[in-house]
Amino acid sequence: MRKFKFADRILNCASVKLFVYHTPESTPTDLLPDCAVVIDVLRATTTIATALDAGAEAVQAFSNIEELMRQADSWSAEKCLRAGERGGAKVKGFDLGNSPLACKPEVVKGKRLFLTTTNGTRALQRVEKSPQVITAAQINRRAAVNYLLETQPKTVWMVGSGWQGDYSVEDTACAGAIAKSILQQSDVSLIDLFGNDEVIGAIALYERWKDNLLNVFRLCSHGQRLLKLDGDEDLKYCSQTDILNVLPIQKEPGVLIKH
Ligand code: 3SL
Residues of the chain whose pLDDT is less than 50? Predict the structure, then answer.
């Protein structure tokens, strides 16, 4: 990833408009943004960032298991890992589930992850035709912010993955964390930056929980689901801020590589 120093940052991003959509279903169907930021903190976009940081060649996302199997079967066996979950649990017969903690360099280095998840991969599919698509999570928030400050897309949609059409608090909190950081690092006014009211709500949510993200992850419905699957270590990992300097970016529809 290309790094740039704080002093190099363009601090005037008056032309950037941020929009937050809580779920893929709530995005407009007749429009696309200049840049889509797909967020699934628990856990798809945390796993994608971790896998790429650990040296995976790419992560290819599928909403459909049959299509994933078809494409993975045509890939060289030693460079392919089938990964994914349904209801949080590993898909039967797959190499990996959707735990970011399983994405160790010795497991994923040089390999392509063929990944299917309940919501995150659907959110990616919803915006895959946008000119720029990146993914973000709490663990790589700063990398996403830096990219947006550097490239200054005119319209940015931060799309939470939610859970089967319903709102997920952790995705909106992460969108708020990104919006807040952009606001702090630019000289743009609130009114110029905010594209919809959801941005104001997302920042307020993040401000309320920013010192206690793990607590809200343990409280929220998907956190509860993961705790029943013994997922507390995943919650702890996913709740950390800015621990990875990696930015997943879409190079072709559904295929994410390290920027
Ligand atoms: O829904 C998704 O995309 C997943 O991230 C859900 S889970 O955390 O793997 O259960």
Answer: 1-8, 10-11
Distance 40 CA to ligand 1 centre (A): 7
Q: How far is the CA of 45 from the centre of ligand 1 (A)?
A: 9
* Nearest-angstrom CA–CA distance, 257 and 237: 21
CA–CA distance, 208 with 248 (Å, rounded to integer): 28
Q: Residue 193 phi/psi, 5° resolution?
A: -80, -35
Please provide the size of the chain in residues.
259
Handedness of CA 20, 42, 4, 58 (dihedral sign): negative
Is-above-0.85 flag for pTM? yes
Residue-wise pLDDT tens digits, 41-99: 999 999 999 999 999 999 999 989 999 999 999 999 999 999 999 989 999 999 999 99
- CB-CB contact of 118 with 168 (8 Å): no
Give the three-state DSSP class for 214.
Answer: helix
Residue to mutate, 25, 103, 117, 217, ligand 1, most ligand atoms under 8 Å from C-beta: 117
State how far the Cα of 12 lies from the Cα of 63, in Å rounded to an integer.
38
Determine if ligand 1 sits within 6 Å of the CB of residue 168.
no
